[in-house]
Amino acid sequence: xKIAKLDGSTVGEIADHKxxxxxxxxxxxxxxxxxxxxxxxxxxxxxxxxxxATQRIEGVDPYLDDGKVYTRRxxxxxSDEQAAVVTAAxxxxxxxxxxxxxxxxxxxxxxALSDLTMSDAMTTYRQALRDITTHANWPNLVYPDIDGSDGxxxxxx
Length: 157
Fold this sequence. Notes:
By secondary structure, the protein is of the alpha+beta class. Helix content is 32%, strand content 24%.
């Protein structure tokens, strides 16, 4: 457990509790709130909850707030940064969907060999796969689910 030594409301040294107090025997969970307060220390918060679509984490000088020490803070993204997050997510979805389309086409490539006659249904299916990038929900397609629904993907005959 990371803790910080405090001098009043000023944050001092930050380290693992065993490193700061090597001669003290702690329970496996580390020092409790009573021990921390009695020894002029505070817990260092490692993780902050945030929405990655609209916020980001930023490192800051350690500060004390409500009895805990923070070394990071949550910052709202600008509209340009939010747009970049959406663009990156769409690009990643498009890449995944193209790979899925290519996989589905490869599954049926053997039917396009010159010595086989492809059914009209299979021809339509393969064309629908090629046209998937013009789907209204592209690139955020709904994938098939376990109840048998094909989502936004064409159904293989």
